[in-house]
Amino acid sequence: MAAPRLYSASQSVRRVVGLDTEVRLREWTVWIPQLAPGHDGLRIGHISDVHVGVVTPDQRIRNAVELIARAAPDLCLLTGDFASRRAAPLSRLGTLLTGLPTERTYFVLGNHDHLVDAGQVTRELETVGYTHLENRHHTIELRGAPLHLIGLDDPVTRRHRPAEALNGVPELGTRVLLAHQAESVGEVLELGHNIDLCVSGHTHGGQIYVPRLTEKLMARLGLRHLRGLRRYENDGPWLHVTHGVGSAVTPLRVASRPEVGLLTLRRDRSGVRFSG
């Protein structure tokens, strides 16, 4: 698979209390069999693990939002852990994340949100016009075809209810799952539901990433999908696990730079016979 194209927010990078505020945009192409023709070229902005607080500079969060807004995606998906360790910084969360398309920005919560103050996180994001998909699905018509967004709450704090979220999802259309932890896709498949793409965060790309070693250690915690774009179980749905924007405990990152994602859906016609 070709490496993603990389873009940087360096033109707006500043230094805040000595911490690096740079964030990059990573662009991926997601090839989906039987994708509705109208969704060929659909672009999705993905932000996760903002972790507003003293460890994550506010300017880094603004850089992340500006990168996505400048790319002008068709919709934006936010996959949890907006909080860090204290409730006080949440009062500026809405202001920091404002600027995304309000009618097409959706979010789910993560474990830190529930451990700090899930209610305040939700109010901050809903106040700026973003939609909370709390164990439920929402269908929008884009480019003449239905797009089903399925939101799962956090599995770490046992707030996720897959059966409830999937109840009544129409059969036809593109299915995108928002889940703070990528392993949630397995529970969806066990219920007999198919999805085309899952977007997640939680792992920070390993945060301190040493090839093979980090993956082995994280696998012991049940986290087998740490970063990037890959297929679930080799031939299952696509998973996009972003490094995320911030950190809750330590600013130290090794080989897992802060990032946001831009995913372009493409119709996979590799199995279609040419008849020209």
Automatic annotation (TrEMBL):
InterPro entries: Calcineurin-like_PHP, Metallo-depent_PP-like, Metallophosphoesterase_sf. One of its GO terms (cellular component) is membrane. Keywords: Hydrolase, Metal-binding. Residues 42-205 form the Calcineurin-like phosphoesterase domain. It comes from the Bacteria. GO terms for biological process: lipid A biosynthetic process. The keyword Magnesium does not apply. Pfam families: Metallophos. The keyword Metal-binding applies. GO terms for molecular function: metal ion binding; UDP-2,3-diacylglucosamine hydrolase activity. PANTHER family: PHOSPHODIESTERASE YAEI, TRANSMEMBRANE PROTEIN WITH METALLOPHOSPHOESTERASE DOMAIN-RELATED. This is Phosphodiesterase YaeI. It comes from Enhygromyxa salina.
